[in-house]
Amino acid sequence: MKIAVDAMGGDHAPEEIVKGAIEAARDYGIPTVLVGIKEQIEQELAKNSYSGSLLEVYHASEVVQMDEHPATAMRRKPDSSLVVAANMVKRGEAQAMVSAGNTGATMAVATLKLGRIKGIDRPAIGSFLPTKCGQAVIVDAGACVDCSAENLLQFGIMGSQYVERVLGVERPKVGLLSIGEEPTKGNELTKSANEALSREPGLNFIGNVEGKEIFQGMVDVVVCDGFDGNIVLKISEGIGEFLLSSIKDEISGSLWAKIGAWFMMPALKRFNVKLDYAEYGGAPLLGIDGVCIIGHGRSNAKAARNAIRAAAEAVKNDVVGCITEAVHMHRAAV
After folding, report:
1. For 40-83, what is the HEC assignment?
2. Main-chain dihedrals φ then ψ at residue 15, nearest 5 degrees
3. Which of 36, 216, 232, 304 could bridge to 81 as Cys pair (CB 3.0-4.6 Å)?
């Protein structure tokens, strides 16, 4: 197994991406191909004194910038690190791709080069939210803003398979994001999706969930369109950053607060881990015929390491195959 990593993608590439790949090789033994400008990657490897055999460098002469239009990036930069990484997966030279670069371009390139799983109409991004019981995956988190009830049903199937196979949750609880628990609450799309999800025998669908219930750990998979999902995700990130910043400000305000914080340090560190996006590494692009993990644009070495780990786990647990089988069973039952 090899993971193709877009070493030039992200705000802190290639420095942090290369460091993350080194950590993934050291901590998890994951073979990785660093795709990008060879000279820059090798400089980073030398800077970190890496001399192992688990990391390879594959030269790509172009870089997709964070603000480039996805279609333009694909058409005008065929030798970009992003496109080359996707082509490696397509040819079977790597089993998964990881990029912390331009999200829209990553989605477009992965979908075009790898194709969609048969029976999946639109791919979706699965992003993680911390809960009292661990974590929940929200599907979709921004790939598809205009959805049908069938799209949302497919999101539920894909999210359930990912959580079961990669996170090890048996019979994941699937909930539909709405403005009330009753199946009659919400807009026409939500009501139609509730009905479709309720009829799907392969899902452990528990009904509608409100936004406040996500963090209580009531569900393992939150289904919604990409418009609402991205808003939930960004608000959650903002609240987390606000809480951490406010706590730091209050602690620094007095000597007694600093003393108290010293005793609370283990608890504060655990709290910080729950809110740290880098712990999750990246978001899987579900529904494509291959494994693609999309990292946060500001990914540091820790995030890059965990994104590579997430990609390896998805390959190991055959997430694509499981989703394909689940969709086939759904189609056969319709």
Report:
1. HHHHHHHHCCCCCCCEEEEECCECCCCCCCHHHHHHHCCCEHHH
2. -55, -55
3. 36
Q: What is the pTM of this model?
A: 0.90
**What pLDDT is attached to residue 267?**
67
- Which residue reads 């809480």 in tokens? 243
CA angle 262, 267, 269 (to 5 degrees): 85
Cα–Cα distance measured from residue 126 to residue 43, given in angstroms and rounded to the nearest whole number? 34
State which H helix or E strand residue 284 sits in: strand 282-286
pLDDT at 234: 87
Residue 313 tokens read as 């786990």
Q: In this predicted structure, what is the pLDDT of residue 279?
A: 73
Contact 290, 106 (CB under 8 A): no
Q: 330: number of CA atoms within 13 Å, CB side? A: 25
Residue 309 structural domain? 1-120+287-317
**What stretch of H or E contains 181?**
none
Asked if the structure places residue 326 within a domain, the reply is: no
Q: Does any domain span residue 280?
A: no
Task: Give CA–CA dist 105/168, Å, rounded.
Answer: 30
Query: How far is residue 299 from each of residues 11, 51, 279, measured CA to CA in Å?
Result: 7, 24, 11
Q: Is 270 exposed, middle or buried (0-12, 13-18, 19+ CB in 10 A)?
A: exposed
From the CB of residue 28, how many other CB atoms can be counted at a distance below 10 Å? 15
104 inside domain: yes
Express each pLDDT in 85-119 by its tens digit. Answer: 999 999 999 999 999 999 999 999 999 999 999 99
Which domain CATH number covers 76? Answer: 3.40.718.10
Give the residue ranges of the chain where pLDDT is below 50: none
